[in-house]
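Thread: Lysophospholipase L1-like esterase, structure

OP (GT): Posting the sequence first so everyone is looking at the same thing. Length is 266 residues per the record. Can we get the structure tokens written out before standup tomorrow? I want them in the notebook alongside the other entries.
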Amino acid sequence: MIQTLRRLALGLVVLAVVTAISGADTMSSVFRPHPAGDVQVVALGDSVTSGTNCNCSAFPQMYGDLLHDRDRTPVTVNNLGVGGMDSTGLLQALDQDDTTQVAISDANVVLLTIGANDFGDHHDDVTSGQCVADCVSDEYEQLTVNLDKILSRIHTLRKNQPTTILMTGYWNVFKDGDVAERQYTASGRVASNQLTLRTNAAINAAAAADDATYVDIYTPFEHSSNITSLLAPDGDHPNTAGHQLIANVLLAATPNPLPKPPHQGG
């Protein structure tokens, strides 16, 4: 009986040790310590951020490379862009997804591109020229509310540490260039452009009301000599040149020097 109890006790000790080791491995894979001085970039957003139809590294990684070259410091980029993501979906991820929460808590630079998909249900109405401003009023109002909540949630996850938040607008919330010329009516192209400007205004206002920076993507795209040369064949997403342009504009908007990175003593 005594031997049996001893064997049982020993088994429990071994089980506890294995569990502790396993738990430590799990925690280390989620909560990764970063060397002091490293820059951690997290990119949040939709298919533009994720690099859909680009077959390239997408602008977040390009931006990280440029930032590394500028500051001569290690830069890690975590691209969490998801095709089809809208502002409501991103807010839910910030509230419920552990991976997203941990990534933001670690990141002292946040790239945010969100809002175009909020109007996806009205694509045909807008691009055919049949949509008046009121047809997207509910979605626009929800976007403005969500943007404020998204920024607030980011600050909460960062525990109000110094954080550089760069919020991009859009060159177009729908298609552009030669593809839009072929597929949309003239009035539809005007309506799409007006909705884009309105969306960018909402993003700009949210950034201005917060400790964030609005990054104008509309001007460098629309004022280029040939916007089609910046777009993938679908006319809806940037190609390699378009992503590089976004990265360049983001770098120009990045403070130099950056606020003190997380996990740095001092």
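GT: Both are above now. Quick notes for whoever picks this up: The beta strands are 39-45, 75-79, 109-113, 164-168, 213-215. The first strand starts at residue 39 and ends at 45.
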